[in-house]
Amino acid sequence: MKLTVNLSKVELKRGKDSITGRIGLSWVTHCAEDFGLRKIVEKEYAKGKKHSRGIPPWKKVMSGMMMMLSGGERVEDVEVLRADEGLLESLGWEEINCPDTMLNFIGKKRNNARNRKVNEEMVIESLRRIKTEELTYDNDATYLDSNKKSAKYSYQKRKQFSGLIGSIANLGMINTVEYRAGNKSPQTGILNQLRKAIGQAKKAGKRITKFRSDSAAYQDKIITECEKSGINWYITVDRNEGIKKLISGRVVTDWRTMYGESKERHDIQWSQAEYVVSKGYKVRVLILRWKNPSPDLFNTESYCYHVIGTNDWEIDPMKWLEFHNGRMGTIEHINKEIKRGLGCDYTPSHEFEKNRGYFILGVLAHNVLQMMKLFYFDGAQKLWTIKTVRHYFINVCGKIVKSGRKFYCQIVNVPDKIFALFRHCKSRLGQCYY
């Protein structure tokens, strides 16, 4: 129908239909319940103080995740969900907590510890549901600028917080997370997270067989842990004195041109060698070099170098480089998603614990989205970013309609492929195992 008159001549009429512009949030919530997330939350919170009055922890956790998934940028944006009667009706909820309740909830250390445990249990359950037996674990630290009092100056010479996160690359889920002040060394905590990841995989009946990280993980104790656990590691190597001596010992005939997927990179040459670390382990190193584009008084070297180490003696050099760089599509992509897509670079308070709680909620929201991609979407959405999912699936108009003895979810004004996505999602409810 075309509007043929001027809006000034149109009569206003108020409707009472409970329509929501975020019907996708209801589907995400019901899928999370179907997956078992509600039971995980209730089981974890049942271990401590009872929550007999007020809004239960499950709804507080879920409302925080829904706020982030729908595009909220501040804790106060949960008010938008509170005012959405259509969303409440589609959820079957009477109310959603207010921002102050949310801040008080995430400001308690025990609640954040429980939410982190909930996240771990969700990842373990996801691991049980996939066929892959051998897993790749990636680890990286990300930094968040902040002017809050609890922020500290990092090595980047800015006031920041730091999030050390680990991801199972086969899932795209964050399985280990630690939120800390910016002055913590990026090397701190990696070993503990690696051990935790090994334990999670074992609990799910799987095994970590590969570990990737940047130079922060190039530590003797991490290499020892990998050797003890039978893990092939692929880590960027620090250019210490031993590595510099190794590079200077390379002759012209040791350098080769790139091949395979990297054959177009004519500006880069590579060489490989062996190197013995202080613990006595022999390490295979891949050295890349390219012309120094701007030598100066402080860097007079003719070439720039990048060194990668591994204990995998069978892998082809270019396959090795490709696999190591694959972490940019997993852990580094996740860092970007949780900061820019879910707003985890926002710090709601001067109190450290509240900022930590907000970050952990963002990690949970990311993992719920990955759960949807893995077990409820049809596979074509695997590479969708949070903004794409938000546009096509979450922020969609719809309402719950009762007709006779049946309830219908009426999706409004979407293309056929998006309606088919909702239909596929419904078909997976109750049977989301691979």
TrEMBL record:
Location of the Transposase DDE domain:
14-413
* One Pfam family it belongs to: DDE_Tnp_1_4
Name of the protein in question: Transposase DDE domain-containing protein
